[in-house]
Amino acid sequence: MGGSSPDLTELPELFDLRIKARALSFLFIAGAALAGLTLILPHDQGFRDAQLSIVVGCAFVVGGLLYWGADRIAEWQLHLALGAGTTLIAFANYYSTATLYSLLFTWAALYAFYFFGPRPALAHLGYIGVAYGVELAAVDAPSPETRWLLGVGTPLVAGMLVVRMLDRVRSGRAEADERARELRESEARTRLVLDSAPDAFVTLDAEGNIRSWNDAAERVFGWTAAEAIGEPMRTLLTPPELRDRHDQRRQRLVDAFGSEVPTHYEVELMRRNGDRFPAEATVSKVDVRGEILLAGFIRDVTDRKRQQDEREALVREQAARAEAERVAEMVSGMQLLVDAALAHRTLDDILVDLVARVRAVLDADAAAIYLAADRTLALAAASGGATEAQTSEPVPFGEGFAGRVAAEREPMLIQDPPPGELPYPALVQLEIDSLIGLPLLAEGEVTGVLVVGAAAPRHFSADDVNLLRLAADRVALAVDHARVYQREHRIAETLQRSLLPDHLPQLPGLSVAARYLPAAAEAEVGGDWYDVLPTPSGGVGLVMGDVAGKGLVAASMVGRLRSALRAYALEGHSPARVVEQLNRLIWTEEDATQMATLLYVVVDPVAERLHLVNAGHPPPLLLSETRTPQYLEGGSSVPLGVLPFPEFEEVSVPIEQGATVVLYTDGLVERPGEHIDTGLDRLAEAVRGAAPDPQQICDLVLRDLVPEAGAPDDVALLTLRTIPMADRFEVELPTEPEALASMRAVLRRWLRHLDGSEQEIAEVVTACGEAATNAIEHAGAGTPFEISGQVEGRRVEISVRDFGAWRTPREGDRGRGLSLMRALMDTVEVVPTADGTTVRMQRTLLDSTVNGDRQ
Fold first, then answer.
1. For all residues of the chain together, what is the average pLDDT?
2. What's the CA gap between 535 and 572, in Å, rounded?
3. Within the chain, what is the greatest distance between any pair of CA atoms?
4. Are 710 and 522 within 8 A, CB to CB?
């Protein structure tokens, strides 16, 4: 304010109207009480008591009204009341002779100066002066001027002092209010800045409780200010495992001497939903009137961390790209070596191709591969020099350049090698002056050595050694795989050839043929297989299977399935039961992961029925003389090894005399990119109208369906035809007990063809069985026996001939076999010769009409 008096109109009011009214009320009552007291006490006779009593009563009334109306009074009403009081004081002075009442003018003046300010106070003081002057003029008073001056001047001087004092009070209050206003505005601006700040602002007390919380903190952490303030930060925002560290850091800041510079650190914090995020905190220690507070800004750096990670990843990616570009040629060179390993199956082909490609990868002039055996190295393949085919003497480990590489099992690089260090003499002409040798290691063993040479101006370096080290790893792997493959291939090929039948059994009344072709593009043996086996009931079982996979594992599975199937079939199980047992066998194999498709067909030529079970295999094809080719789709189920307890359905269909059954694997009908139905239609069309002979059918199918270059997969083909029975038949059977079932089946078919009754068929078959049993007992080992039959009218003649000598009947035999034959047949004749024995039997069948009636 520069020392000048402030504008009083701009200064704030110290008192409100209520206080002013009550104060004036107290003055009226006090003055009235004082006047009343003078009336009560002994006083001068010049007092006019009645009039003074009225004045006192009016003063009490006005004072009471002011007191009770203080809450509703207006400013002008106070001025009016003060003027009325001045008037009452003038009357009191007029009706009394005491000078005490004149002092009451001072009360009125001082009240005006105290509560109304200078201008209104001076106006009231003027009115007091007038009223006092009138009153002094109306009474005979000594020195009225002096009394007037004293009565008016005294309150004037006191009032001016009061005004000066109140001005100072008002000025101080105005300054205080201004500072308070500025402080409030500053606090509001600070709060606005903090609330609009992008970072969270949190204030903690010395115990770690939250004292302030801005809008950004609510946005970052998810807690509102009402929820956060008063809560410990360690439990609200700090992960459990970091709370001890948080307490230690907070305590260090609290215990630090004075106000230190802000502390900056990184910390992991926790949101309301439990998510964690990285943050940066800048914390300052603040002393607020003796209370220690920790004020800090917290910034969520999740995005910055991600961007930083992305930048670092970009830097690493650029570095990796540069490194990738540096080794791009190395990788492409390694690919050439991998291609060489995959393009061939034989070890010789792989080695020849590998040395040529190693030369191309290193831009070398020569390369050679030694193979190790019994601690010596033999040159296996070479490239470069005057001739491509090189020979050399075996090199023991430790001798020569290649021998030292093998013995030390470490790469070697030499410059200007002597001629004796070269893999073969022809390289002397190339003037090789840089040589690298690396051991070929497979499962920790040295399997060979790779040697590469270069002529000037080419000189090998450490980078070439590193590149060749990678090449050596792949060469060693290729060589080892080739050796393993060749060994397994030989084993698997031998095993699979032993599993396929060397020859098909001779089946009386049936004709069977089979073919097997390996895949043209596959050197490994596959899992296709077939089998033909007579059943105990006199029928014949046809098997066609395909084991998933190739090589030794597949061949081994074929062997187990073939042996098990034969055993189950010879035990007399039904086809469905046989396949169920095979599936159980696969599932009981320890760590078995094999799967196989299987088609098992049992042909019963006597009953003229065909029974089949299909475990995920292509359906068999049935050819008949009266109908078109027909696929037997029934009885299909999942392949073997897919489910532990699948349900295999057995289907029975009629098969007429002369019909042919064709079994095959998918290699015959499947082609890449072609639906299998197309291949099935092609097979059916190929055999339509074909000759009934199974051998001819096999040749026809392979000629029409297998490409000249070979099929993409193995092909197995099996055909069986039921030969129509005529009035004459003749079959040759092995001297084995199993042949008796086939013989009985042929006889039953033939006798049914002749319209024999069931009883006649049973009796004739029994008699012939006795004769065949004797033939098997007496014929030489491995020598077959023959059975033939013919009919004239209703008389049948059957001959059983063996090529051995009958033994002398032993005691107890008593000729039961011959007796049984003579009892069942009309005539029985045994004709021994030097070459063997022939049993001729005859029987006349009843008339076909009678047989028809009996049946």
1. 78
2. 7
3. 203
4. no
